[in-house]
Amino acid sequence: MLNNIVCGITKNAICSYFYQLNQSNQQLFYYFFKPNCKSMTLREICETVKGEVVCGEELLGTDVEFAFSSDLMSDVLTVQCDKLILITGLSNLQSIRTAEMSDIPCVLIVRNKPITTEMVELAKECDIAILRSKNTLFFVAGELYKAGLKPVY
Asked: CB of 29 within 8 A of CB of 9?
């Protein structure tokens, strides 16, 4: 059926077509054809959430395409995705270790949680940037989605 769709058709036409077939498909295809989906650099992410760089200034040019928000590190370990940023309120070594195991280049700590020197040292060893925002996890995730980052699920 998709083979019959001409490349020049707009997102709205595709969404309308699939809305008529099935409303759940419409949501699925809107996600894939969302016009403002894009990758962002860590620098752009930091500016978008009005955050600060705690460590990893040299990594601010790294491109990120997806965001995942969780305080449960066991949930983070199930994610199989490249170019991902972890947004969490968990400010301890476990969040950095989880990012290391999952090859996540940046951890964004929300709610202005304190970041220990041990976390910074470990992040530097593992080549992981740590950003911090005074905003809530919900607000930060919403702003990054609005700016174009894609959710994992």
From this structure: no
